Amino acid sequence: MGSTLFTTERLWLRVMEPCDNEAVRGYFRRAWTFGEDWLPIPPADFFTLQGQRRRLAAEAEARRERHSLRLFLVRRDDPFERICGDIWFDCIDQVICRVALIEFRMEERSCGKGYMGEALPVAMALAGAELGIDRFEALIAPQHTAACRLVARCGFTPLSTIVCWRQLGQGWVEHQVYATVATQTTSTAHTQNR
Questions:
Q1: Relative to the CA of 36, which of 16, 43, 140, 188 has its CA 20 to 30 Å away?
Q2: Residue in 89, 101, 69, 105 with CA at minimum distance from that of residue 179
Q3: Interior angle at CA 48, CA 101 and CA 3, nearest 5
Q4: Do the Cβ atoms of 139 and 177 come closer than 8 Å?
Q5: Nearest Cα residue to 134 out of 70, 75, 181, 173
Q6: Contact 172/163 with Cβ under 8 angstroms?
Q7: Which domain does 87 fall in, by range?
Q8: Which of 6-15, 88-97, 115-124, 173-182 has the weakest average pLDDT?
């Protein structure tokens, strides 16, 4: 299933291909059931095998073109190698720098165990090198305190003058924009693990 780009102490960080659509659909069903209040409303075909196959094909193309990167987290102690989380980097080319918006989520059985805190810095280093990122941004609802703490631990700071609204499962929710600069040391860290 998928190809492993990086290994941490407890996780494999993998990219998935269209043939992995069944595993990805299963993961997204578990993740949305657990966190639907905090997640965007998915398109109508999101939970279908064909819909996931199309999305994974589009993501593979965007990855080849260096526009985005989605990494799926797989616990190394899971004998079934089920996906337990994902981190998505979507690039926004700007005149002065290259910015990536980050989205991340976990399924319920893996929450609160530090997996995302372990994976996010590594994933940022990998995305920084693979996509040529200068700055990372994350849109976080202030009420989502766990996500606010996570990005703060990873060096993000809130941009006090910038807020935005996103439609989530609970309706339109104000989000704070958090940002951090990609560092040279994190950008090169992944090459030692490949």
A1: 16
A2: 101
A3: 55
A4: yes
A5: 181
A6: no
A7: 3-192
A8: 88-97
Type and span of the H or E element at 34? helix 21-35
State the Cα–Cα distance between residues 179 and 109, nearest whole angstrom: 28
The span from the CA of 178 to the CA of 126, in Å, is 19
What are the structure tokens assigned to 53, written together?
């196959």
Are 110 and 148 in contact by the 8 Å Cβ rule? The answer is no
The alpha carbon torsion through 94, 43, 179, 123 (nearest 10 deg) reads: -100
Type of residue numbered 188: T
Read off the CATH number of the domain in which 177 is found: 3.40.630.30
Q: Which two tokens stand for residue 96?
A: 């002065």
- Number of domains observed in the structure of the chain: 1
pLDDT digits (tens, 9 = 90+) for 18-53: 999 999 999 999 998 888 777 888 889 999 999 999
Q: Which residue has the tokens 């094909």?
A: 57
